[in-house]
Amino acid sequence: MTDARWVKELPVSITVTDETGRITEMNEAACRAFEKYGGASLLGTDVRDSHPERARAIVCELFETHRVNAYTIEKDGRRKLVYQCPWLLEGRFAGYVELTFPIPADLPHHRRDQELVES
Predict the structure, then answer these.
(1) Which CATH number fits the domain that encloses residue 40?
(2) Separation between Cα atoms, residue 10 and residue 15, nearest integer Å
(3) Structurally, how many domains does the chain consist of?
(4) Of 16, 49, 60, 118, most Cβ neighbours within 10 A?
(5) pLDDT in tens, 55-105
């Protein structure tokens, strides 16, 4: 088994739920990001309870379909990528992982498939 201590201080917000939607893990960045909603005290609560009505409907749909949900947001003048994906345990749906990380306004985009053909 590998040492997962690196996750604690990673400058990417990581929140994990179980299959019922209960928040089971949050790293330090997630606790800071959700501080005004309770931070670390959100552990053990239902993730749906932390969302306004429109977002709650999306979260409920994710738990029914087990699909990936990815989008960008801007908050406090910073752009972020939010990536929500199911995690599996022995091939079965076990919950969701949400990764949120800042992205620069001028993020380069590379087309690796074209670069390979051109080289």
Answers:
(1) 3.30.450.20
(2) 12
(3) 1
(4) 16
(5) 999 999 999 999 999 999 998 889 999 999 999 999 999 999 999 999 988
